[in-house]
């Protein structure tokens, strides 16, 4: 028998943890599908999805089965050896995308770190050491390592950590003229999110992405799509680039990729990949059998017409109701996004108050997210039942009614 578990409560967080988070007042302890229960047994509808991670909700039988089966075989061998789940998952990702080569990591930041290092190494080898500049977007988000946080276009995350990584330019998103003015023969890569996630769930325009692709080609620059948040079924396509019909040179994936188990992946072509020769980049845990087994099982469920079409249908269900709530209570001016990555933009009277909506929603038993202070974000399970959508939105409406009408 295992020893009894120590009692813990939310107040312990402030005594034990580095204070870089400010989590909600309750502690979730159990989940099933799109429902979550806290320590007191209170049930909540989960529209947060662990920040677009829990792509099949909580305790999906396919994922629990894959993890349990693999846990009884082999957990970890490192990349001194290879393993079957990693190779099977790589086959699946290559079969379903533009990619010919895969690099596995443990997170979105690591996938982006690999993508950016590869772009610089490729340009260095093919064009010479002068071609190292990276163009990124204002308000973008690419992770928290020193390199990725500097590439991300939000000073509040990158300031105060010493000298900045050199050779990074930030320009406005969805603005082709800005890219025309910034790109040059010194540019090694342009990186962007097809749907800007953290800064407010902003989808790119198709014509813009087509123009970016052409400018990259004309200037010998690689195009990197950060699909950490928009990828792996989230938009109703396996990857958002497929929705737009614009193919990148390098793509980063994480979040939904593991269905809740930490994993990241960088996808690229064979021609580009050959510049990361043995010893140039690595990770101890990346591609571990547990993560890859779970991700492979998630792939088999998600990359099906039923689920991907369902994501698009569920988008419309969310959007119609959120727009109705927005109009009735004067709280949202716009509902935007793709698939089940949705942002409800707060009206002028409620600008800056996304946290208030988050808190009010929690009190009514529904978990939502913010995307900056002015947008309420929804990133639920890709297979969330329509009944759970309706119930969660009923609860959200009650929260909004209390918030707006006192």
Instruction: Give helix % range.
Output: 25-40%
Structural domain tally: 2
Distance between the termini: 51 Å
**Average pLDDT taken over every residue:** 97
Strand order in the largest sheet: 4-12-11-10-7-5-6
Helix vs. strand class: alpha/beta
- Report the count of strand segments: 17
Q: Count the DSSP helices.
A: 15
The CATH class of the largest domain, by name, is Alpha Beta
| Rg (C-alpha, Å) | 21 Å
Task: Give an overview of the whole structure.
The relative contact order is 0.16. The protein has 15 helices and 17 strands. 40% of the residues lie in helices and 18% in strands. The chain is globular and about 60 Å long. With 406 residues, the chain is α/β, with parallel strands linked by helices. It has two domains: 10-59 and 308-405, Aspartate Aminotransferase, domain 1 (Alpha-Beta Complex); 74-302, Aspartate Aminotransferase, domain 2 (3-Layer(aba) Sandwich). The strands form four sheets. The protein has a seven-stranded mixed β-sheet with strand order 4-12-11-10-7-5-6, with helices on both faces. It has helices at 10-16, 49-52, 61-71, 84-96, 108-126, 146-151, 155-158, 176-182, 206-218, 240-244, 270-273, 289-302, 305-329, 354-363, 386-405, and strands at 28-32, 35-38, 43-46, 101-105, 133-137, 168-171, 187-192, 195-196, 202-203, 222-226, 250-253, 264-268, 332-338, 341-346, 366-367, 369-370, 375-378.
Summarize this entry quickly.
This protein is an alpha/beta fold. It has helices spanning 10-16, 49-52, 61-71, 84-96, 108-126, 146-151, 155-158, 176-182, 206-218, 240-244, 270-273, 289-302, 305-329, 354-363, 386-405; strands at 28-32, 35-38, 43-46, 101-105, 133-137, 168-171, 187-192, 195-196, 202-203, 222-226, 250-253, 264-268, 332-338, 341-346, 366-367, 369-370, 375-378. The protein contains 15 helices and 17 strands.
């Amino acid at each position: 028998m295992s020893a009894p578990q120590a009692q813990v409560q939310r107040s312990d967080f402030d005594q034990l943890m580095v204070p870089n988070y400010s989590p909600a007042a309750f502690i979730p302890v159990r989940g099933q599908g799109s429902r979550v229960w806290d320590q007191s047994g209170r049930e909540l509808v989960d529209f947060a999805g662990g920040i677009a991670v829990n792509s099949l909700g909580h305790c999906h039988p396919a994922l629990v089965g894959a993890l349990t089966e693999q846990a009884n075989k082999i957990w970890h061998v490192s990349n001194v050896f290879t393993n079957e789940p990693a190779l099977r998952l790589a086959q699946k990702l290559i079969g379903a995308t533009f990619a010919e080569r895969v690099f596995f990591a443990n997170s979105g930041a690591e996938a982006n770190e690999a993508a950016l290092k590869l772009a610089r190494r490729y340009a260095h080898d093919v064009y010479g050491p002068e071609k190292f500049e990276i163009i990124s977007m204002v308000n973008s988000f690419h992770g928290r390592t020193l390199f990725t946080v500097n590439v991300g276009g939000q000073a509040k995350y990158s300031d105060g950590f010493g000298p900045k990584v050199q050779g990074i330019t930030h320009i406005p998103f969805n603005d082709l003229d800005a890219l025309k003015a910034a790109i040059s023969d010194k540019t090694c890569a342009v990186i962007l999110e097809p749907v800007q996630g953290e800064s407010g769930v902003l989808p790119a325009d198709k014509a813009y992405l087509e123009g970016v692709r052409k400018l990259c080609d004309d200037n010998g620059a690689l195009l990197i799509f950060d699909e950490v948040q928009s990828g792996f079924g989230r938009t109703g396509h396996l990857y958002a680039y497929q929705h737009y019909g614009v193919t990148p040179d390098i793509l980063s994936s994480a979040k939904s990729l593991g269905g809740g188990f930490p994993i990241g992946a960088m996808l690229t072509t064979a021609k580009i990949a050959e510049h990361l020769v043995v010893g140039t980049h690595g990770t101890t845990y990346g591609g571990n059998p547990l993560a890859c087994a779970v991700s492979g099982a998630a792939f088999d469920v998600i990359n099906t017409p039923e689920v991907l079409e369902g994501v698009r249908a569920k988008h419309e269900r969310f959007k119609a109701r959120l727009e109705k709530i927005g109009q009735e209570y004067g709280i949202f001016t716009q509902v935007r996004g793709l698939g089940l990555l949705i942002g409800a933009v707060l009206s002028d009277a409620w600008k800056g108050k996304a946290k208030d909506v988050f808190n009010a929603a929690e009190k009514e038993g529904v978990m939502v997210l913010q995307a900056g202070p002015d947008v309420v974000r929804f990133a639920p399970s890709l297979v969330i039942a329509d009944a759970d959508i309706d119930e969660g939105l009923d609860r959200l409406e009650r929260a909004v009614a209390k918030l707006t009408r006192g």
